[in-house]
C-alpha cells in the first residue's frame, strides 16, 4: 500500500493524504497553466516531492498554512517555501516544545499502514530553515489561469493562513476541519480570540464552493451561516478563552 493517498478534486487539483498516521494530515496540489502550488508538505514520511513530480511537470511553489511539524515534514525537499512572517521564527528556530526526538515519537504513534520501505525514522530530522518568501493577507498567487488568494487566519498559530482559489475552493488548514479530532486552540501559543475571529473571517468570504480539510475527512460540509452561528454562540456564552474546554458543533469541534 502506498503511503500517500491521492484524491483528485478535479483535473487540476489533487489532495495528498496520509491516512496511515492517526492525524490523517493532508497536503494539496493546485495546478495552473504556468505553475503549481503545494499547500503544506505533510509529515515527512516518504517523499512528497516524488509524489508531486509524478503529478506535474510545472514548477512547484510551496506554501505553508503554518509551521507545525505535521505540515512541514517534506519542506526540506523543495528549493522554496513561503510562510506568513508571524510563523517565520518557528520555521527558522523550531518550536520550543517540539524537537526531533519528540516528533519522531509522534510520527511512530498509532500507525495503521506500513511505512515506506525506504523510510528510516532514525534519520528523520525536524526541518529548520529560512523561508524564501512571505505570505501576506489578501496576497494573490497567479498560477496561470488560476488565482489563489492568501487569507491570514491566526489563532491556531500566529501566522496561520488559509487559501481560496478562483474555483471557490477553500483550504482552511488547521483553522477548520471535520470533527474526528478537535481544532486545537488550547496550547499556550494559540489564541482562541484570534481563532474565532478567523472563523468569522472565513464565514464572511464570498464565493466559497467547497471546503477541504487539512486533517480528517477530505471535505467539510459546513455553511457560512453555521460558522457565523457558532461564533455567535461562543461569544455570547463567554467561551472564547483558554480553559473553556471542548466546544462541539455539528461539523467541527474546537478545543480551548
Ligand atoms: Zn497545526
Ligand atoms: Zn495540523
TrEMBL record:
InterPro entries: Metallo-B-lactamas, NDM-1-like, RibonucZ/Hydroxyglut_hydro. It comes from the Bacteria. SUPFAM superfamilies: Metallo-hydrolase/oxidoreductase. Residues 24-215 form the Metallo-beta-lactamase domain. This is MBL fold metallo-hydrolase. It comes from Vagococcus allomyrinae.
Amino acid at each position: 500500500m502506498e503511503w500517500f493517498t491521492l484524491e483528485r478534486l478535479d483535473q487540476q487539483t489533487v489532495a495528498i493524504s496520509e491516512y496511515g498516521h492517526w492525524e490523517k494530515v493532508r497536503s494539496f496540489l493546485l495546478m495552473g497553466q504556468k505553475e503549481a502550488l503545494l499547500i503544506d508538505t505533510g509529515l515527512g514520511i516518504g517523499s512528497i516531492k516524488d509524489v508531486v513530480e509524478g503529478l506535474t511537470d510545472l514548477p512547484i511553489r510551496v506554501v505553508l498554512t503554518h509551521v507545525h511539524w505535521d505540515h512541514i515534514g517534506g519542506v526540506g525537499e523543495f528549493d522554496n517555501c513561503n510562510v506568513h512572517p508571524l510563523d517565520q521564527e518557528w520555521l527558522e528556530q523550531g518550536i520550543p516544545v517540539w524537537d526531533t526526538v519528540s516528533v519522531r515519537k509522534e510520527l511512530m504513534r498509532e500507525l495503521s499502514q506500513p511505512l515506506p520501505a525506504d523510510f528510516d525514522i532514525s534519520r528523520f530530522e525536524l526541518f529548520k530553515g529560512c523561508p524564501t518568501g512571505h505570505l501576506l493577507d489578501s496576497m494573490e498567487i497567479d498560477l496561470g489561469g488560476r488565482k489563489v488568494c492568501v487569507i491570514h487566519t491566526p489563532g491556531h498559530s500566529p501566522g496561520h493562513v488559509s487559501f481560496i482559489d478562483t474555483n471557490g475552493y477553500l483550504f482552511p488548514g488547521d483553522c477548520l476541519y471535520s470533527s474526528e479530532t478537535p481544532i486545537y486552540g488550547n496550547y499556550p501559543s494559540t489564541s482562541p480570540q484570534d481563532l474565532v475571529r478567523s472563523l468569522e473571517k472565513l464565514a464572511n468570504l464570498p464565493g466559497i464552493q467547497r471546503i477541504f480539510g487539512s486533517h480528517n475527512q477530505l471535505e467539510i460540509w459546513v455553511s457560512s451561516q453555521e460558522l457565523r452561528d457558532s461564533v455567535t454562540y461562543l461569544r455570547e456564552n463567554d467561551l472564547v478563552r483558554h480553559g473553556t474546554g471542548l466546544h462541539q458543533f455539528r461539523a467541527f469541534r474546537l478545543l480551548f
